[in-house]
Amino acid sequence: MILMSHKNNTQEINTIEELRQIEPEWNALLAKSESPTAYLTYEWLTTWWSCFKTPNKKLLILAVRDNTELIGLAPLMVVEYSIAGIPLRKIEFLSMMRFAYSPSNLAGSLDFIIKTGRHKEVLSSIISYLKNNIKGWLYLRLHPISSDSSSISVLEYMAKEQRFSFHRRIVFQNVRIPIDTTWEEYCLQRGQNFLKKFKSLEKKFTQLGELRYLDITSPTDFESTYNTLTEIEARSWKSKHGLQVYHSMYKNFFPKLAKVCSENDMLRLWILELNGKGIAYDLSITYSNKIESLISTYDKSYAKYSPGHLLSYHAFYIYFQEKLREINLLWGELGAKSKWTSTFHKHDEIFIFNRGFIPKMLYLIFHRIKFYRIYRFFANNYYYFKNTHGF
Fold this sequence. Notes:
Radius of gyration: 22 Å
Order of helices and strands: EEHHHEEEEHEHEHHEHHHHEEEHEHEHH
Oligomer: single chain
Number of domains: 2
CATH class of the largest domain: Alpha Beta
Helix content: 25-40%
């Protein structure tokens, strides 16, 4: 079903078949947006939906047009759930997971896709459409949004204007390496021993045999080498206590995404081989000259040689030579990742509660009594240990 609001020129899309009709316009608009990111591409979002759609989730894509020009997209989904047997309905970003700072989360940054400079009119149309056309929703929950996104201040203003309750909090920091110098200047900024350390590691490895770095970007190479990742993971710490690329929690997302990205010039799969055997990998994707490092690990029997760090060092060198714009190492393990950069980027979670008694009560329980914070802490830890330790 496609609905069109003539007043707001807002189109509602509820199926993948309907979404395909605007596929050519999707990434074209994303390229004109404030912060184009791989997590908002048509490829990412449709792959995620194919893996994680469930009967309680409904696609809700809103396309805002100025006459015939597409100027805004709201990649959303309606999620139905229950608390103590009471049925509830919320609206979330497409590809959001339960918690932003969690092993189950996949997207490093989400947002509305809006042509630069058109935030107020686009978000006004979206909020108005949700208010007048989508029945029964209690609140919007949106994460992770870059803390400097123009969407946040406009959403807060719109919420006050509509007398909706608004709540904002920081959910994590991303680790980013801006590529705005030469490789030599970057290494000097990281300290006198930075280069020496990696040269020493590489020398130790070459004493063990032939070292080779594989940069997989094409569909053909991907198909022939992807099984190497599971072989590396079988010999890594993830084999017992981590989340592997084929873990059931990810519902085959990474293999499907890597295949789609390899077919659309977005894949950067790095593998470090020693004597023809894979000992480390880094699965990354690229969009708008930015690298997103999604998942990686290494053979634990070579832990003292830091094969993962050595592979990253080599990949980063190549990215600098290619004059890309940025390397995003995502969240988690900030201490270990800070050796690469001093640039951290905050991301927020936004709640917007509808009018009415139940939304107001949920706002009070979630954020005034802080039930949501307590629930998030215990549920997130239980979810992690259940999936990594078999509890």
